[in-house]
Amino acid sequence: MTEVLKETNFGFLGKKKAGKVRDIYEPSTDSGQGSLIFISTDRHSSFDRIIAHIPHKGQVLNQVSAWWFEQTKDIVPNHVLAVPDPNVTVGKKMRTIPIEAVVRGYLTGVTDTAIWTRYSKGERSFGDIKLPDGMKKNQRLATPVFDPTTKEEKHDRILSVDELISEGFVTKELFELVKQTALSLFAKGQEIAAGRGLILVDTKYEFGMNEKDELVLIDEIHTPDSSRYWQLRSYEEHIAAGEEPEYFDKEFLRLWFKEHCDPYKDAVLPAAPEELVEEMSRRYIQMYEQITGEKFIAGEEPMIPRMEQNLKQYAI
Ligand SMILES: Nc1ncnc2c1ncn2[C@@H]1O[C@H](COP(=O)(O)OP(=O)(O)O)[C@@H](O)[C@H]1O
Ligand SMILES: [Mg+2]
């Protein structure tokens, strides 16, 4: 049985802040701007809660992100200081810019904030682009759209550029810089993805500022959790037949929970069937291999002692 990484409690790294998927530690800040240690766990969230633990997912997310940071560092510097373990990235702590830089290349999605949902309700203006009538679901946009939301505690809001600036989220200059950088990153992402037989459909970036007030890419980039990917080979055929594109599918696991419990209300959820969890794990690994073109090599187990060893150097 493969081990799963549910959580870490590395008191020697300082205080832990647990996100849904990552455990973040902030070792003491010696010289003003310190570092953050991001540990990607195997937690899998949906319906705003953890629904399962997927073997190797944490490693895939961490290494896919690290790979893309490397591929895009000529476009914008990033926060990565080191990747000392298959599941860990050490990043430089930045002053965060409170917007989620969303870029969309296709007319798709099902949630309230998705571009297809809004388009099908009659909305036509997105960012500074106006879409024509008569477009079909999953159609490629003539040019990618920069469609930012605010990054807030409660719920991300969609604000117009003028509102983002007038409500003080960003200055006009910074907004333009974030937008141009996000679009450049997305163009490069799409180009590389196409070379691997994938369509990078949409994504979300986060940025910060360093001590010299320069823009820096933070958080994660082009992971299967922050981005949507479709298979290029079957896209045209599926669209022509009125079918959904071939996607990296997390939906089947959501569906199982919807059929077997009320994931929004039940205090305790049933365990997902082992074969579904294994299928999900295989898909994450396949995504890693398709994106990077490299064979996935699982990190050594047991994981906790391995990580403690690899992170010793960051003890406070
Ligand atoms: N280099 C960085 N400096 C400061 N904050 C960062 C940096 N990189 C990522 N972050 C922040 O760390 C958090 C990562 O948390 P995450 O595990 O993604 O949980 P969630 O997305 O649920 O907030 C985000 O709030 C992100 O903005
Ligand atoms: Mg996040």
How would you summarize this macromolecular structure in one to three sentences?
This protein has 316 residues and is an alpha+beta fold. It is 30% helix and 25% strand. It contains eight helices and 16 strands.
Characterization of this structure:
The protein is of the alpha+beta class and 316 residues long. It has 2 domains: 11-95 and 283-314, Phosphorylase Kinase, domain 1; 96-180 and 203-224, 2-Layer Sandwich (D-amino Acid Aminotransferase, Chain A, domain 1). The protein has 8 helices and 16 strands. It has helices at residues 57-72, 115-120, 161-166, 172-195, 235-240, 251-260, 274-292, 303-311; strands at residues 15-18, 22-26, 35-40, 43-46, 49-53, 80-85, 88-92, 95-96, 99-106, 125-126, 129-130, 140-146, 149-150, 198-209, 215-218, 227-231. The strands form 4 sheets. Strands 8, 9, 12, 13, 14, 15 and 16 form a 7-stranded antiparallel β-sheet that branches. It has a 5-stranded antiparallel β-sheet with strand order 1-2-3-7-6. Strands 4-5 form a two-stranded antiparallel ribbon. Helix 1 (57-72) runs parallel beside helix 7 (274-292). The chain is globular. The model has no long low-confidence stretch (mean pLDDT 94). Bound molecules: adenosine-5'-diphosphate and magnesium ion.
